[in-house]
Amino acid sequence: DADLEKELERLNEVLKKDFDAKVKEGEEEIDKNFMNFKARAERLEEREKHIKYLAGKARIGGDWELVNTEGKLEGSEQLKGNWLLLYFGFTHCPDICPDEIEKMVKVVDILDAKPDKEKIPIKPIFISVDPERDTIERVKEYCAEFSPKLKGFTGSVEQVNKVAKTFRVYHSQGPRTGKDKNDYIVDHTVITYLIDPDGLFHDYYGQTRTAEEIANIIEMKVLKYRAKNRKSILGF
């Protein structure tokens, strides 16, 4: 009987070890499956975010071409490789446009003052939404009042409307007052757009943002953009 009890204890111990091993193996398999599921879920979530991001970008911006202050056609294709700040306005604007353009130029000055290795190749761009009055010469003189860095663009009514539509910029000529037919205001969207070196819409800033805030945001955007591009080049 004693021998039988010992044998039963031995068998129970073997069965227990075998059972524990199976349980552990099952737990490890569950953990592995869970981690695989979690990784797949994270990848799907990341992919969904990326699709939404691309969809958002697709709704604003794109290829564009206008007449620069040298009277030549120029646009997104020629400006690729640089970060751009785009502002749509008109040269007869009494207050908002000058304030926003000064702020845009200040943002560029802040970023240009960074050490060489931290510098961001960025250009401020003014696009007129008043082609009737904003001739090439008028836009050239207007931009020179703010900074030699500021590039100005105008064009025909059709050209300007096409670019405004590309960036979802609303603009409407107000009623003409008095005897002077050129005395009118243009109501328009007051937003500064950030375009990346690939020519794609990247961000936008309203009137409430200060130059310092915008410069800080752009620095972070550029760091993320560069890190993402490095990963793409390395195949990560």
TrEMBL record:
Family matches, as InterPro entries: SCO1/SenC (IPR003782), Thioredoxin-like_sf (IPR036249), Thioredoxin_domain (IPR013766)
CDD domains assigned to the protein according to its UniProt record, in alphabetical order: SCO (cd02968)
KW Disulfide bond (keyword) present: yes
Keyword Disulfide bond carried by entry: yes
GO biological process per UniProt: mitochondrial respiratory chain complex IV assembly
Annotated disulfide bonds: C93-C97
Pfam families according to UniProt: SCO1-SenC
SUPFAM superfamilies reported in the protein's UniProt record: Thioredoxin-like
Protein name: SCO1/SenC protein
